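User: Can you recover a sequence for this backbone? Please restate the input before giving your answer.

Assistant: Of course. Working from this structure:
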């Protein structure tokens, strides 16, 4: 009995000493956090930061770490069978100076990005702006129609049927029936037609998520601001758009722009589905296709990592530029 009492007393002392140590440590950390504002902010929100740890760990593991590994591998020769061998800037020099197909891929990607990026962004906004003025039920129906390409996985098959190279393709059938041509055009096997068709399809597919994002942004604008602006001298819809609508939609505009940049620079699946891989004379070859060629077919992972790094840096640079442009909206 006495031994049990002694054991209980020792356990109580241990719990008490642990509690005292915990309180003393918390007190010391509180004093330490008051020395700098950043420390204080972290200490006061420590519970929130602890809740973020699982996400940050997964983000680092599946996003940050692969980017760092790709950057490291871009300076090596690595074929998946042998250990990576450091070769310095050789991959980048070969890409820029001794790989004519990569230059073609860059040209095609830039053409697609320059046309589909701004044009798709503007079309998405204009359509969202116009449809936002419709009655609720009609607006919901039209929104679903424009968003449908994003949720229909095989939507690109429609364009393969439209530009089919036989007389049963919709484009050839229409042109033959109306007397514009006599023989079917090999749309996806003719070099000069491939890139324009890819641009059309990419524009059509880019409307979905961007359009929905901008619709949400337009719905979030406080209508009372338009009434106050009318009192302050805003006279027409264009002034309302520039001074009220767009400044209130900056988060949605930025999000939509980032999606558009990613879609424009990441074109690859569309060209493969339409024109095959590789396309005729590399007419539809993009940077992503070049990356897939060396990474997924030839297994030259160092060279593929250099391509991926260049694509990543380009996307970051364009993102910075878009942020500056959108930051001036409404000024």
């Amino acid at each position: 009995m006495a031994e049990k009492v002694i054991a209980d007393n020792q356990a109580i002392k241990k719990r008490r000493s642990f509690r005292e140590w915990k309180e003393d440590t918390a007190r010391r950390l509180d004093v330490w956090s008051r020395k700098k504002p950043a420390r204080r902010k972290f200490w006061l929100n420590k519970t929130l930061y602890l809740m973020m740890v699982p996400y940050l760990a997964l983000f680092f593991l599946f996003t940050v770490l692969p980017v760092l590994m790709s950057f490291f591998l871009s300076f090596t020769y690595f074929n998946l069978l042998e250990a990576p061998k450091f070769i310095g800037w050789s991959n980048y020099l070969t890409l820029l100076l001794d790989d004519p197909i990569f230059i073609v891929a860059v040209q095609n990607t830039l053409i697609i990005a320059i046309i589909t990026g701004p044009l798709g962004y503007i079309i998405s906004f204009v359509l969202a702006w116009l449809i936002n003025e419709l009655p609720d039920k009609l607006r919901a129906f039209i929104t679903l129609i424009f968003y449908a390409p994003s949720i229909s996985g095989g939507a690109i098959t429609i364009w393969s049927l439209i530009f089919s190279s036989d007389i049963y393709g919709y484009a050839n059938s229409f042109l033959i029936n109306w007397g514009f041509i006599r023989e079917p055009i090999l749309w996806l096997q003719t070099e000069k037609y491939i890139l324009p068709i890819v641009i059309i399809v990419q524009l059509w597919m880019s409307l979905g998520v961007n359009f929905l994002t901008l619709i949400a942004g337009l719905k979030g604008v406080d209508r009372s601001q338009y009434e106050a602006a009318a009192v302050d001298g805003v006279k027409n819809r264009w002034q309302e758009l520039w001074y009220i609508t767009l400044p209130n939609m900056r988060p949605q505009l930025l999000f939509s722009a980032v999606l558009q940049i990613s879609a424009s620079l990441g074109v690859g699946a569309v060209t493969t589905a339409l024109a095959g891989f590789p396309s005729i004379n590399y007419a539809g070859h993009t940077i992503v296709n070049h990356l897939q060629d060396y990474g997924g077919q030839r297994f030259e992972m160092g060279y593929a990592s250099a391509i991926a790094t260049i694509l990543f840096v380009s996307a970051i640079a364009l993102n910075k530029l878009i942020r500056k442009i959108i930051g001036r909206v409404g000024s």
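That completes the design. The first strand starts at residue 76 and ends at 77.
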